[in-house]
Write a structure and sequence with these properties.
The structure is a single chain. By secondary structure, this protein is an alpha/beta fold. It is 39% helix and 20% strand. The protein has two domains: 122 residues, 3-Layer(aba) Sandwich (Rossmann fold); 96 residues, Arc Repressor Mutant, subunit A (Orthogonal Bundle), CATH 1.10.10. A five-stranded parallel sheet has the order 2-1-3-4-5, sandwiched between helices. A four-stranded antiparallel sheet has the order 6-7-8-9, with helices on one face. It has a three-stranded antiparallel sheet with strand order 10-12-11. The chain is elongated.
């Protein structure tokens, strides 16, 4: 019989005794496995080649603040849930942690039953938070948006053209449209696009991406829409060059 894999929790905590104690409690009481990292750099290295379900993140680490580490992870596309741990009952820091996307904020000292209950609550939310996602960056719950004169409708996986015609699109085309529309007026490398649509660990070659771009160009050409605003930057990637309203 297949058993459900144990969630992997990163414990980013410079207090070695506390980190070991947390790891023991997660295994005994919570049925979870853990990876202890005493420095922010260790967390970054671990996540480059491993998946984690959640990070318990101390606000103060020897080489970096927890806030800066989380910002770095999000910038790289890593969306692992984060529960901040701190010995400071500071309202300003708590608000900052939650506003920047932290999933919870726990003050030391804490009881282990409470810690495990909060971890389980975040894990449950994480399991369902991306149920509508059909690519790494696009969901069928997203609102419709404009792209080069056409309206992209994620909820129906369709493109509405000015000539009144409606065409269906695939998941990857939607992901490409969504990423370009949310990053106008900036050169985007092929890796940017691949990682954002397929995922950071996806084994996708630039040639595959180019084939999807060709399909998009042909789709718009059939409806007499130019893609002048969507240009190839040779040797680099693409740019969606949108004129700012005067």
């Amino acid at each position: 019989m297949n058993q459900t894999p144990k969630p992997l929790i990163i414990i980013a905590e410079d207090d070695k005794d506390l980190a070991t104690l947390i790891a023991t409690q997660l295994e005994i009481a919570g049925g979870m496995q853990s990876q202890i990292c005493h420095e922010a750099n260790h967390v970054v290295r671990f996540l480059k080649s491993n998946f984690a379900n959640l990070i318990l993140l101390d606000v103060h680490l020897p080489d970096e603040t927890g806030f800066n580490l989380m910002a770095e992870l999000r910038k790289s596309g890593n969306e692992t849930p984060v529960i901040f741990l701190t010995g400071e009952n500071d309202e300003v820091k708590k608000v900052k942690a939650l506003e920047m996307g932290g999933d919870d904020y726990i003050i030391k000292p804490f009881g282990f039953p409470e810690l495990i209950a909060r971890i389980n609550a975040v894990l449950r939310r994480a399991e369902t938070s991306h149920d509508g996602n059909i690519t790494q960056n696009a969901s069928i719950t997203d609102k419709a948006f404009n792209f080069c004169g056409a309206k992209i409708n994620p909820q129906r996986l369709e493109v509405n053209f000015p000539d009144g015609e409606v065409e269906s699109i695939g998941r990857k085309e939607l992901g490409i449209f969504a990423y370009l529309a949310s990053h106008p007026n900036a050169v985007l490398t092929r890796k940017n696009l691949i990682h954002s649509v397929w995922g950071i660990h996806a084994d996708v070659r630039s040639r595959s991406l180019d084939q999807y771009i060709v399909k998009i160009r042909e789709l718009f050409k059939r409806h007499d829409l130019t893609l002048d605003a969507f240009r190839t930057v040779h040797g680099v990637g693409y740019i969606y060059d949108v004129k700012e309203p005067e």
